[in-house]
Amino acid sequence: MLFRAVLPFVLFLACVVFSGGCMCAGEAAPIPRGVIVCKPQHAKLPTALVVASDIDTASAGAIPMSFSATSMGEASLVMPLRTVPGRGVEPSISLTYSSGGGNGVAGMGFAISGGSAITRCPSNLTDGEIREVRYDKFDKLC
Questions:
Q1: How far apart (Å, rounded) are the C-alpha atoms in residues 72 and 68?
Q2: For residue 8, what are the contacts with CB-CB under 8 A and spacing of at least 6?
Q3: Using CA atoms, how far apart are residues 133 and 141, in angstroms rounded to an integer?
Q4: CA-to-CA distance for 142 and 130, rounded, in angstroms?
Q5: Domain boundaries, the chain
Q6: Residue 21 carries which DSSP code?
Q7: Bridge partners, 112 (sequence order)
Q8: Residue 34 CA to its chain's centroid (Å)
């Protein structure tokens, strides 16, 4: 029992006494003289210049967006996201922010808009009856 209590102390004492090479005080590391040259591992490859005049670019730091304020005084910001055009179809997707919005898929107040979806919706008088969504075959699709 006494051995278990003394052993950690003896190991600690040995580390402190015999740490000779681990002193923080002493001489500073020598400062290298001259220039240290880093040699590349591989030969230099030719640089290809990209010249494309048909690509629309924005100046650095400029993000196309539109800001507005709602009638309730909430800030609204819309930033269009560039997408790759498909075969005859080019989706229009944007990242939107509303200061009155809740927690969305992109963070607090942020949402992604422009994607279409078919969802279930309640029936109203123009459908012939007033009915909430019940997740059955009689739900209307919007």
A1: 11
A2: none
A3: 10
A4: 15
A5: 66-82+92-116
A6: G
A7: 95
A8: 43
Q: Are 102 and 82 in contact (CB under 8 A)?
A: no
In tens, the pLDDT along 83-138 reads 887 777 777 889 999 998 888 788 899 988 887 777 888 998 888 899 999 999 98
Say which amino acid occupies 43: A
Model confidence at 41, pLDDT cuts 50, 70, 90, reads confident
- Residue 120 has, within 13 A of its CA and on its CB side, a CA count of 9
Contact 137, 120 (CB under 8 A): no
β-strands 75-81, 107-108 pairing: unpaired
Tell me what the mean pLDDT of segment 63-86 comes to.
Answer: 87
H or E element in which residue 77 lies: strand 75-81
- What pTM does this model have? 0.40
